[in-house]
Write a structure and sequence with these properties.
Radius of gyration: 14 Å
Shape: elongated
Order of helices and strands: EEEEEEEEEEE
Number of strands: 11
Amino acid sequence: QVRLVESGGGLAQAGGSLRLSCAASGSIFSVDAMGWYRQAPGKQRELVATIGTGGSPNYVDSVKGRFTISRDNAKNTVYLQMNSLKPEDTAVYYCYARLRTQRWGRLYDYWGQGTQVTVSS
């Protein structure tokens, strides 16, 4: 069984910072891309940031220059450093990992259960 567990969410003031972590564990052979989605109340889930195995990041325009995604391949962990937070960043943040559970298995996407981020003005 594959598990993705997020941590680091909470309450921050506008302009503050939070660091999210997500560790993948279980029956994992290898991990490909990892990333973060978020969903605000009444809105669709959106992709926030992704990072490939080589460390190349991609960000949604609204977080560029403020958020930094990184990963530790040895720990199957992805991070999201969130600086200069805005109230608009308030959402449930979900991590994901594209991985295979066996050497010749196909790639599947897995999601964590989410962590709440609330930014007050």
